[in-house]
Amino acid sequence: MQVRRFNSSRRSFLKLSALGAASAMLAACAAPAPTPTPVPKPTEPPKPQPAVAPTSAPAPTAAAAPAATAAPTAAAAKPTEAAKPTEAAKPAPTAASKPAPEGVMRPPEPNPKRGGTLRGAWGITTSSYDIHQGGSSNVLCHLYNNLVVLNLGDGIKTIVPDLARKWTVSEDGKTYTFDLREGVKYHDGTPFSSADVLASFQRIISPPSGIVSVNKDLFSVVDKIDAPDAKTFRFILKEPRVYFLELLADPAHVIYSKKHLDANGGDLRKVITPGTGPFMFKDYKEAEKWTFVKNPSYWDPELPYLDSLVLVHAAAWTDRGTAILTDQADMTWNCSIETWQEGQKRSDTIATNRLYNYGGYAILINTKKKPFDDPRVRRAINLAVSRQDLIKAFQTQEWINTTRWVPHGDRYALSTEEILKLPGYRADKKDDIAAAKKLLADAGYPDGFKGVDFLCASVAAHAEIMAPAFQEQLKRTLGIETKIRVQERALLVQEQQKGNFDMVLDTPGHLLSDIAPLASVYFKTGGSRNYGQFSNAEFDKTLAAVDSETDPAKRAPMIRKLEDILDNEPPWYPVGYTFHLPMWRKTAKGMGLELRQRAQWGRLDTAWIDK
Amino acid sequence: MQRYILGRLALAVPTLFGITVLIFLAMRVLPGDPVAMIASEGQGTYTLTQEELAAARHSLGLDRPLYMQYLSWMSDVAHGDLGRSFWRGDPIRDLIARRGPITAQIALMAVAVSWLIGIPVGMFSAMWRRSLADYVTRFVVTVFMAVPSFWIGLVIVLVGVLWFTWRPPISIIYLWENPSGNLQMTIGPAVAMGAGLGAVTARITRSSVLEVLGEDYVRTARAKGLRNRLIIGRHVLKNALLPIITYSGLALGGLLGGSVAVERAFSVPGLGMALVQALNERDWMMIQNLVLLYGVIFTIINLVVDVSYGIFDPRVRYQ
């Protein structure tokens, strides 16, 4: 190409283009502006109702219901009761047109209406379509059933039968026998049998080569599974586990068809396989929208009430909230604080709740590296750094509660009032900082130390708020100087696995609130996520005892002991567990969201639209 | 002209080949792979052993020699099939076909908005050079150049939600399906991006127009008594357009790749968001194909811009 008489203008153009490109790059690199909306000071969580105690009568089995009591109360379950057969659930109060068959869920409100579409909004992407291999259960669970399920009708406080019609637990608490429903069919007409349950749990517990079972560790207590006949399935455990039924009720533990597993070589990552669930797959637009339609042949003829369930992609918390506020969605499991507050102001059309989440923020400490191999140093950090200040610094991002080691809402968790009296957790840091300095001096670091490798994920809120806030407090109170090293989130675990850190800001969490499975993963010697290699023989011994104990009265003091050990020789600096902030339009009913105390992103079988 | 275009297209082949090799290798050299996704936090309580990770890599074909993986990808591309996402197996072609039109529409609308704002403002500023109006205009233009487009996007969304209980739709609505819904979805991102582009366009227009205003032929036109409107419309603007076209072309190329920040602000499921998701999931196949697509887009747009020079400026000749 030949251009005549264009030289001077091209030069000026290039200059301007470079200026424009530089401006654009600066703009793109800029941090998001902080939201100006004031947020409430995190306060004491709402007083939960008393834990629902399992009874020996045929009734829903109590899940590990949230309870902010200091210790288990007399209302808690007795081991003998837990060992008794638990049969089908009585239906929740409902004025449904047909009488409910035994052991099924019903919405909490009377006279549910049929028809319509419920629009959910949250991050609906999934790495694969195989839930057992880490596919998103909060999206795919609507297609499937579990053996048992948390009861939506009472705000997921009890466990009711799902594909199991009823179950019994042996006297020693080690054998769970499930009597399976008859006449259940997959969406393609394939009949359901115990062979499907067997195949599903075989791949969860002992996955074949190339199959990644993400919750394999949770089932390590299972000694044997078998299916004596087509309608019976059994788990035989090595030891009793009080939370075993709750584990089975998690949306990640769905039942797949053996036929479809076999047809796909046991790998469902690329296949949306038919389930037995209340909804059938219709369409998926990648990272945009899932459409599920009613299963007309669902084994519970009363459900679902909805004609369809549409899940729209709203990865950002703010988008979820604004989608509800502007009637582009009917419900979300968790939204941003400022949109949640806006929803509270619009109480004529919008409803909100605040739920205990079993995940939180913590700074994991590498206990094998000096000087953190000295428990006094770790204890000093836990005493000196103010949780209240960190929570306040983070309040525009996520609502963190002041908690100890047991997740808030668990029946064994201390109340916030009690926690706030403890050294290290209390707001007044004067005595704690003095004690921390003494500990550090005793450990040989009276003036602190430098060069600590502080790893954190390349998430803006982590790298730009929480990590610097922690860094500043460490330096100011104890003279410990850290260097923040930002790593891409997907690679953070690899760095942790290799032990390439002194401290790391992480977001640990668990499916269950019980401290035993959580501690087995994070604190037990050799635990799969014990990246800081914490090891304490007394802790391990007590943990083993807690895990196999079924008597709450005996568990309570042992759990206190576990927490005391962790406070004295902390493997982490736990900032706190978080709240989830669900919001929904008042026309969306049947989910029991207003009755819930804990978060679980799961099934919506009983949802209905009041329009 | 035909020979020129064919020559340019032929030159694009090694460029695109280079892009494919670079992105393919970059993905393999950077730490982490699709299996890292499953091993990362929030994906269960179990941490995979090295053997299990190796088995997972084998099942995804990630343990094959690099040249085989590359040839396999190129074979897919040659057959018009852009492959499938690693984990889910979804066709990438379908994703591009679904999201591409929305991203393209927003990009074109943003460029149109930038012209609607930038050219009149730039001309106004040039014609009243060094007046108070010029200084005010330049100040406003500088402000808009400095303000990130995603911030404007957030303001649009927040004002819509808080004052009018309205926000742009978060699911794709095509123009041919529902024009009103489609405009609600696209106008916000177009304005947010167009404002920043318009500011740059105004600066380019101003300097370009000033340069042309000093040319002999403009002085001659004035000397012979031609009306100012005719001088500006016929002589100045047409001659000042080339740098604006070049800038807009480059900007359009960038916008067609999707503006991540603005798509994120408006929750528009465009190609930019798809790339971010693919990066988070380390979905190499998706990343490779999207980058290849951007390479093709830039190549074509550069060609179109070059060809358009000849249309707007007859002095330009192609050899």
Description:
Chain A is an alpha+beta fold. Helices cover 28% and strands 18% of the residues of chain A. In chain A, the strands form 6 sheets. In chain A, strands 16-15-17-14-18 form a 5-stranded mixed β-sheet. In chain A, strands 2-11-10-9 form a 4-stranded mixed β-sheet. Chain A has a 4-stranded antiparallel β-sheet with strand order 5-6-8-7, covered by helices on one side. The longest helix of chain A has 23 residues, at 7-29. Chain A starts with 6 loop residues before the first helix and ends with a strand. In chain B, helix 7 crosses helix 8 (179-213). Chain B has helices at 2-29, 34-39, 50-59, 66-78, 92-127, 132-146, 149-164, 179-213, 216-223, 228-256, 260-266, 271-281, 284-312. Chain B contains 13 helices and no strands. The model of chain B has no long low-confidence stretch (mean pLDDT 85). Chain B is mostly helical. At the A-B interface, helix 1, helix 7 and helix 14 of A face helix 2, helix 3, helix 5, helix 7 and helix 8 of B.
Write the layout of secondary structure elements.
The complex is a heterodimer of chains A (611) and B (319).
Chain A: H1 7-29, E1 61-62, H2 79-83, E2 117-122, H3 137-140, E3 148-150, E4 158-161, E5 164-169, E6 175-180, H4 194-205, E7 222-229, E8 232-237, H5 244-248, H6 258-263, E9 279-285, E10 289-294, E11 308-313, H7 317-325, E12 331-332, H8 337-345, E13 350-352, E14 355-365, H9 375-384, H10 387-393, H11 416-419, H12 430-442, E15 452-457, H13 460-478, E16 482-487, H14 489-498, E17 503-506, H15 515-522, H16 537-548, H17 552-568, E18 572-580, E19 583-585, E20 588-589, E21 608-609
Parallel strand pairs in A: 2-11, 15-16, 15-17
Antiparallel strand pairs in A: 1-4, 3-4, 5-6, 6-8, 7-8, 9-10, 10-11, 12-19, 13-19, 14-17, 14-18, 20-21
Chain B: H1 2-29, H2 34-39, H3 50-59, H4 66-78, H5 92-127, H6 132-146, H7 149-164, H8 179-213, H9 216-223, H10 228-256, H11 260-266, H12 271-281, H13 284-312
Helix pairs in contact in B: 1-13, 5-6, 5-8, 5-10, 6-8, 7-8, 7-11, 8-10, 8-11, 9-10, 10-13, 11-12, 12-13
